Amino acid sequence: MIQSADFSVEEEIAKMKAISSRMGGIVTFLGTARDFSKGHDVVKLTFEHYSKMAEQAMLKIRESALEQFSIIDVMMIHRIGEIGIGENIVLIVVGAEHRQDAFTACAWCIDELKKTVPIWKREETPDGQIWVEERP
What we know:
Strand order of the largest sheet: 1-6-8-2
Number of strands: 10
Structural class: alpha+beta
Number of domains: 1
Largest sheet: 4 strands, mixed
Shape: elongated
CATH superfamily: Molybdopterin biosynthesis MoaE subunit
Distance between the termini: 15 Å
Order of helices and strands: EHEEEEHEEEHEE
Helix content: 25-40%
Strand content: 35-45%
CATH architecture: Alpha-Beta Complex
């Protein structure tokens, strides 16, 4: 899911728990906006995306994770628009019967998201704007 609004980590974990009582492990990855990157101060971030392709790419990651790993479900949220320092950017929640499956799938999902989803990050610094070449 791609959205401009913030999200509640606790609410998203509760949604995952409600899916199945077989879950023995729920792993989350939470990406937040930091105030320093590659040797310069950062004041805020802006994320832009190619809407239709980004949503489809995230769906494909979800479907692939469900096929490749022994997990029960996976949920992903990535914010777009202006994001202040300390705010949430991306959340991945993976539920599985066993913790190692959830850890492995969660790591794979964030790596795939960064590699394949057309979302671009711009850092606002005291000296101007910088488009980050690698994807967020």
